[in-house]
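Submission sheet (multi-component)
Chains listed below:
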Amino acid sequence: MSHCLLCEQSIATSPTFSGLLGIDHKKDICEDCSKSFQRADIIDEDPLFERITSIYTYNEAMREYLHQYKFLQDVALAGVFSNELRAVLKGKATVVPVPMHPEKKIDRTFSHVDELLKRAGIPFVHLLEKNGTEAMGEKSKEERLAMRPLFAIKPDAAVGPGPYILIDDIFTTGTTLRHAATVLKEAGATQIEAVTLIRAEPSH
Ligand SMILES: [Zn+2]
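Outcome: structure written.
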């Protein structure tokens, strides 16, 4: 008997054919919690991307999940969406995680997007890194904001035409993804799509 990682209620495990074959994925969360996540299945067109796909909406259940996963750093939760991620990320494209935002590094000690991919068994490569801000020390705050390049290609990374899939946890305005795609395109990528686990409405 296992327990739901979110609400702790016990998960009944009934033997199935695939389970007998040992290919059944152990359930991390219960049926009730599974149902509380709401699929968005948004596929956007965008000038920079072949398409942008977002799997879930940002509802109350997802807000709580992210809190427990990212901020309380419950790494066991990385596997909750493995099947859904595998379904969207199947194919031959190179999966490229968007690096964590610099100011978020302080309160997070693990890379949550990397963990989601690892747990799902999805190979990925880090082509991007956060840009350092050291060289901009003499600029005014306004100048830094205006020119702020969020990402750079990693020194040892080889960027080809693609296809690439940029992956991030949450899409709010799309600014982060567009920064990342622009850097990849400048380095020679021609075919880029994006996948995010969640689509949030920008707050007004
Ligand atoms: Zn549950």
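Remark: Strands lie at 2-3, 10-11, 39-46, 49-57, 94-97, 128-130, 151-153, 164-171, 192-199.
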